[in-house]
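hey m, so remember when u said the tokens were messed up on ur end? i reran from scratch. heres the input so u can diff it against urs
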Amino acid sequence: MIYLLTDSTAYISRKEAREMDIILIPMNYSRDGKDAFLEGYVEESVAWAKNWQDLSPFSTAQAPTAAFLDVFLALKEQGHSALCLTISSRLSGTYQNAVMAAQEAGEGFYVLDSKSTAGGLYLMLREARKLLNEGMAIEDVMEKLRAMRHRSRTIFSVQDMSPLRRSGRLGYMRSSVSTLLNLRPLLMLQDGGVVSHSLARGQQDQLRKMLLGLSGNPHEVIVQECGDKKAADALEEKLREKGLVVHRRQGGIVLAIHLGLPVLSIAWVESPEATD
């Protein structure tokens, strides 16, 4: 059996994990550097994120090498192998920890940097399971996923830039977006890192620019939110009006700690024809 592993920022449910044979490795977070928690399945993570009005006392930590290694060794003992897809290595050290664990576990264990997170990571997991179920070898699945991640896109909106500034993940936006806090910044993942997409004046302009940013003729889009259901409903309606298949998903506490609340995002994969 070939299992999939991923970290909790994929925000999958227990049901999805069972259906896709995914083993979830929790990310860690703490409050005031004392109370420590593990981020679990999305239904638990969402509840925790919405339970706290102020996330500024919280910090996060990458999924440790030992967590991956324990799972790899247990699977190896049972005669299984695994493919692990992680949050972007530019956002977390989780990928490198998984790589070290796979090297120690030995043959049959593979790790791929998704260069994404949340909805984009979920789409890669779903594709990986589909290809593996069709009988494709892990090495060939990884090649397919490497091509897929070049076509993966994510745009998201945050209320302000303070949590991102605290997390040190502002990147190329430091001198531009971060100084214009009276506007709603729209950000995007580019080659696994966070960069500026545009600025929006109010929610309607935010939704309009997210729609305008939709590139590559996708047939489906993930709308993901944490604490912004009303905006997500409006965005879903506009996407369906364009004839797109829309999947609704929720985000959780680890990304909310870095982005603040509320968070709204769209993720999709450009069609191969559009990028040829």
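this time it looks ok to me. The first strand starts at residue 2 and ends at 7. if urs says something different then somethings off w ur setup not the seq
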